[in-house]
Amino acid sequence: MSFVGKVVLITGASSGIGAATAVHLARLGASLALTGRNGQNLQEVAAQCEQTGNKVKPFLVTGELTSEADTKKILDSTISHFRQLDVLVNNAGIIGVGSIENTSLAQYDQMFNTNVRSVYHLSMLAVPHLIKTKGNIVNVSSVNGLRAFSGVLAYCMSKSAIDQFTRCVALELAPKGVRVNSVNPGVVVTELQKRGGLDEAAYAKFLERSKETHALGRPGQPEEVAATIAFLASPEASFITGASLPVDGGRHAMCPR
Length: 257
What we know:
The chain has about 260 residues and is α/β, with parallel strands linked by helices.
């Protein structure tokens, strides 16, 4: 599998699955445009990418995807730098706890603005360039888009929206040679849940619980999701579009617990 000569834009690339995807694709020769809110973390990820031996230095652009101006800047500057776009990885996202009884409209709006609206906007801007290269989009969804879970209502709704977005846009762009797929991770060891409100003790308990809720008996690692993203973005997945692929250790198949 090679991405030499391919330009890949990854959002949320400063940590977690986005960072792992950047390093993995760097090893495969991709020319990377990396975006995130934390410039220092982006620099550290870029350094890891350069250590893979990839001779194309990652192009970094900080920005807030809920800002329309920043989103346009991210796409425009990527095209200005590389003159093309072959793959868009919509990875950036947030999680928050809350039920129908205590999720405020402000929290709901924040979840959808970050997890759905920004994906819609960046994809819309990227599509003309992806049509030119017969490229593709990989969206990072969640097992929460496939299954119902209590206590994370707005997050589940946002990820199910991403899965439907994936299918609809896949149908719209298939005649133009552009594929659109999503990966649906289960519990993966990143900072996502802690940023969503879990303290260290609660997070440790959450990871321990995942040994029971995931068929393979463990949480996943970012690198495992990154490898699946690379597969879907590669010519090896040339006949796959509109798919939501679980990368969840069997969580989607387990009985509710």
